[in-house]
Amino acid sequence: MFMTIRKMQMLLIVLLIVSIGLVGCGKSSSTGNGNGNGEKSADKITLTIGHFDIDDNGAIFRDALEKFRKEHPEVNLVEEAIPHDPYRVKMTTLGASGNLPDLFVANGSMLLDYIPKGYVGSYNEALNQDAEWKNGFLPNSFDEFTTDGQIYGVPTAMFSVHVIYYNKELFEKAGIASFPQTWEEFTAAIGKLKDSGLTPIAMGNKSNVPVGSVLFGTLADRYTGTDWFKAMKEGTAKFTDPEFVNALKALQELSKIGAFNPDINSIDGDQARTLYFNKQAAMMVDGAWAVTNISRDAPEDIESATGMAILPSVPGGKGDPMSVAGGSGWSLAFNAKLTGAKKDAAISLIKSVSGQEYGRVKIEHNGQPPVKVKEYDQSKLSPLAVDYFKLMSDKKFSPIYDIQLAPALVEVIYKGIQDLLIGGVTPEDLAKKIQTVRDTQK
Amino acid sequence: MSNSRLFKLRAGPAFRYLVPIFSVYAFTVLLPLLISMYYSIHNEGSTKFVGLQNYIALAKDNDFWFALKNNVIITIFAVIGQVGIAFVIASFFMTKLLKLEGFHRLVIFLPVVLAPVVTGYLWSLIYNYRMGVLNWLLNLFHIDPVLWLDNPNYVLYSVSVPLVWQYIGLYFIIFLAGMQNISKEVLEASEIDGATWFKKTVYVILPLLKNVMNVALILCITGTLKIFDHIYVMTGGGPGRSSMVMAQYAYNNAFTMSRLSYGSTISIGMLILCAIIVLAMSRWIGGEAEK
């Protein structure tokens, strides 16, 4: 009797373990079969592509992918697309585990993370084989994606991340004739706008990135100059240098005189744009991509009243007042694991979304392509896009912090800026804190 | 003789029965824990063994201790709010004045089943500066709108309120079950002796609920020390670092700053600190009970 109970128990345990094991096998074998069948039936190459062009601004990119699918029926293109903010988080997570898609959109900062780990492939060979493709790009457009002479990313756009969009009518009502040219005039204008019951500058900084990226990057360059940034990257200049501290002070000063909407740290960019569209705010600072948003979403009177400008020069600044933070920013990179036919298919896909034809479509949709577009239909552009190209014609690009620096440093600077805006930290202490994080990196 | 064996607890069979659940536990809890320990004693990218270097950095990290301080403040708030309010409500249920008992119980328990992310979004809409219900109410009384989630001085309290709101129901149910276990004779005897509702609650129900109270306190403290979802959705630890908690800080390090091993170090540190706090807490409560 006792023995039978023991045997029954053992049998039960063995059955349980086996059934758990079988469940595991069942899953893996079924996916294995799925892949096997797919390859057998059409002999297809499966390529996965990770990107965040899922909104209206990304329609051109999706159309290009659709076109690629039609031209290359042998390729099974799988899109892994999610919105921009979660995309960045997802890619950092995937980067930690090394399971990146075959192709993906990456910014310079992500590449800095992936290159030492050997996750991304180099474009040098492909670019050298196709001179026409290589020479079609704008000068310096590969800068952010190059390490030790190896190019790891093909730019998807080249634009300024800093443009001040201002409402000319509201400026006139507040008694400001034209956009201020010096820092004193700028702060005086903010005071006047505030007195007339408006929010001077609308921004949404809930995710930390906007103020740091579109406003502070340019403001810091006004004070420090681009040479300081290069020296800082090499380790010869420090964040505790007076130039950088002055830039932090200037930003805190703006916040103290009430330049921003009070709920700046709890709303996002779309909500901030709404303030501008509703004439509650006289200015908004945003990247060049907002040209597309305003042309498409803004009420007619707002669109026609919108002017564009950049930050005025600052007293004692070492930077070129004609420069704005900008560059190519995002690129298309491919997984270093790709070889043979898969790699060839990947390169031809990348060519189809970075060549002349794609550039022409992009510019005609008010975008900012990274290639020199020879011929395009200027009448298709919105008046704002024409203004934008006019504004940028004599400007130089200075570094974008969140694209050129490693993720840990970006987080400390941008989170610190949010703290600075609410007065939670002094500029000097913040500079020290940033430098300690800089010191931990090689 | 053979019958009595059936009821004897034997170590061998008992352990064998535990094998399946233990293997699941090992795979989902122990393995990740060991992997994070492995990460935490290696450098970023796990190429080199660095010993306790990450832990030394953690001990010197001002932001981590600030996050712990926030955690402790939220926990104190949650203990008073969740356990305290739940006890008061449960004791109201013991009076005979209450009508529609089932309905009230349902309404109080309902928030517990909401996903924390849903609660977070719901409350960030309530707190919204321009269109939130709270500021609309203030406006009715001609009070200036308040920046609930932007002001570093009270953002910590703003994010604690949804937490309290959500979990009152859980402790309420625990207390109610405990109170219904108290024998009617004791309560009736106190009523005959002329105890008021207040005296009955404080001098009769509370001492008899001591064990239930211990469980509720431990649950509440451990739950609140590892709080993440609500904060992530409402403020992400912001503005600046004013509502940063330990779990959010670990998340930021691992996933936005791409410092996986330091992130692992923070979570192990969190585990150790939580264990110390809970052990100290249970010693304190247990010691008092023995007197």
- Number of continuous helical runs of chain A: 19
How many domains of chain A, as an integer?
A: 2
Question: Which structural class is indicated by helix and strand composition of chain A?
Answer: alpha/beta
The value of Rg of chain A in angstroms is 26 Å
Report the CATH topology name of the largest domain in chain A.
D-Maltodextrin-Binding Protein, domain 2
Q: What's the CATH first level of the largest domain in chain B?
A: Mainly Alpha
Reading side by side through the largest sheet of chain A, how are the strands ordered? 2-1-3-13-6
The CATH topology of the largest domain in chain B is what?
Answer: MetI-like fold
Low-pLDDT stretches of chain B are none
What integer is the average pLDDT of chain A? 84
Helix and strand arrangement:
The complex is a heterodimer of chains A (442) and B (291).
Chain A: H1 2-42, E1 45-51, H2 59-71, E2 75-81, H3 84-97, E3 103-107, H4 108-114, H5 124-129, H6 131-135, E4 146-147, E5 150-151, E6 154-155, E7 159-160, E8 163-167, H7 168-173, H8 183-195, E9 199-202, H9 209-234, H10 242-256, H11 269-277, E10 281-286, H12 290-297, H13 300-305, E11 306-309, E12 323-327, E13 330-334, H14 340-352, H15 356-364, H16 383-392, E14 396-398, H17 401-404, H18 407-421, H19 427-440
Parallel strand pairs in A: 1-2, 1-3, 9-10, 12-14
Antiparallel strand pairs in A: 3-13, 4-5, 6-13, 7-12, 8-10, 8-11
Chain B: H1 2-7, H2 11-40, H3 53-60, H4 62-93, H5 101-109, H6 116-126, H7 133-140, H8 155-181, H9 184-192, H10 197-208, H11 210-225, H12 229-234, H13 246-256, H14 260-290
Helix pairs in contact in B: 2-14, 4-8, 4-11, 11-14, 13-14
